[in-house]
Specification:
about 400 residues, alpha/beta, Carbamate kinase, eight-stranded mixed beta sheet, four-stranded antiparallel beta sheet, 20 strands, binds aspartic acid, binds magnesium ion
């Protein structure tokens, strides 16, 4: 007997038929003698629709009211799944964020979970009642409804698994696990049986959309065993686990990519102490996240070119800020480029292996792909390249690191 939290995403609860089929999966776990908590997303497309209503009503809406609107999608599915479970003879009730309560801060639209009071729910689970939670939502210190940011139901599920002391958190979704890279681009991509928290965190933040980054952070912090699996096929998924559980560690476990990048080059920035701080300080003040950075030494002394990347969402604001303060920052020209992609190879095995970056650079060079910016961490090497080479780069790297399926 185990205590488990099951999470179903939007496609898994897209209509009443699918909700009934989710109920059958939950019933199977209950019948097996397990204590079950279920977290649901809104029906697919519903959160977008609700967001649209808010935007159409007023372009600059009150985020506290926005949360009331977008949290509604999960309220519907949690009630419907509870009805479906009861219909199949399973004792169940729904729990909205404020009812649990799932306490969050008051950063409406992207609130952080502060605490979950789970005692009453654990008691009921022990009595055989399935708890069905509306994902994505919580309540702030003033008692107002909050939401956790898009894709936030993953985070709800992991946080509840931690708070309820669950043995496992199963994330049911429309893919059947975590792959070495995007299988829509690389047909030889393989499903991973296991991946470490750290690798998953890098994969998620470098563009792989299987799990919300915050959910992985939370799982890592509380050591929640997460499994990503398909709600439509009956196959084992991918387990996200601690490093010592992965026996045979590949040097590179996965290759991620993100098109959500824009490159900005400032030419002839004065080459003196404080110049970089003078530019990146004001960008940070505007909450513009700078990711990769490279500074080139110019041939003539006194000035250097500075290249960095920002997300596409921040691009316009970054450009405006730089243009407005050109004379203060002292650069000559502003050269933007949005047709770039960041490709990252990821693996905890890199810590103990040399030459990982070199393999990447050679594989790209062989295909005539120019590397524009490089950044590395202990378990990751990222390069920025022209967007048109995304597919070619992913396929070549997948082969170069020996990841291709047989
Ligand atoms: N329904 C929310 C969204 O679409 C939360 C989630 O699905 O995880 O972003
Ligand atoms: Mg999702």
């Amino acid at each position: 007997m185990a205590r488990i939290v099951m999470k179903f995403g939007g496609t898994s609860v897209a209509n009443v038929e699918r909700i009934k089929s989710v109920a059958r999966k939950v019933k199977a776990e209950v019948d097996a003698g397990n204590q079950v908590g279920v977290v649901v997303s809104a029906m697919s497309g519903v959160t977008n629709q609700l967001e649209g209503y808010a935007r159409d009503t007023a372009p600059l809406f009150d985020l506290r009211e926005y949360d009331v609107v977008v949290a509604a999608g999960e309220q519907i599915t949690s009630g419907l799944l509870s009805i479906a479970l009861q219909e199949q003879g399973v004792s169940a009730r729904s729990w909205l964020g404020w009812q649990v309560p799932i306490q969050t801060d008051d950063a409406h639209g992207s609130a952080r979970i502060l605490g979950i009071a789970g005692e009453e729910i654990v008691r009921r689970m022990e009595d055989g009642q399935a708890a069905v939670f509306a994902g994505f939502q919580g309540v702030d210190p003033q008692g107002r409804v909050t939401t956790l940011g898009r894709g936030g139901s993953d985070t709800s599920a992991v946080a509840l698994a931690a708070a309820l002391g669950a043995d496992r958190c199963d994330i049911y979704t429309d893919v059947d696990g975590v792959y070495t890279t995007d299988p829509r681009i690389v047909t030889k991509a393989r499903k991973l049986d296991k991946i470490t928290y750290e690798e998953m965190l890098e994969m998620a933040s470098q563009g792989a959309k299987v799990l919300q980054t915050r959910a992985v952070e939370m799982a890592m912090k509380h050591r929640v065993r997460v499994q990503v699996l398909s709600s439509f096929e009956d196959t084992p998924g991918t387990l996200v686990v601690d490093e010592d559980e992965v026996v045979e560690q590949e040097v590179v476990s996965g290759i991620a990519y993100s098109r959500d990048e824009a490159k900005i080059t400032l030419t002839r920035v004065p080459d003196r102490p404080g110049a970089a701080a003078g530019i990146f300080g004001p960008l940070a003040d505007e909450h513009i996240n700078v990711d990769m950075i490279v500074q080139n030494v110019s041939a003539e002394g006194g000035a250097t070119d500075l290249t960095f990347t920002v997300t596409r969402a921040d691009f316009d604001r970054a450009m405006k800020l730089l243009r407005d303060r050109q004379s203060e920052f002292g650069f000559e020209e502003l050269r933007p480029d949005q047709d770039v992609v960041k490709v990252s190879v990821i693996g905890v095995g890199m810590r103990s292996h040399a030459g990982v970056a070199l393999t990447m650079f050679k594989a790209l060079a062989d295909k005539g792909i120019n590397i524009q910016v490089i950044s590395t961490s202990e378990i990751k090497v990222s390069v920025l390249i022209a967007e048109e080479y995304t597919e070619l780069a992913l396929r070549s790297l997948h082969t170069a690191y020996g990841l291709d399926a047989a």
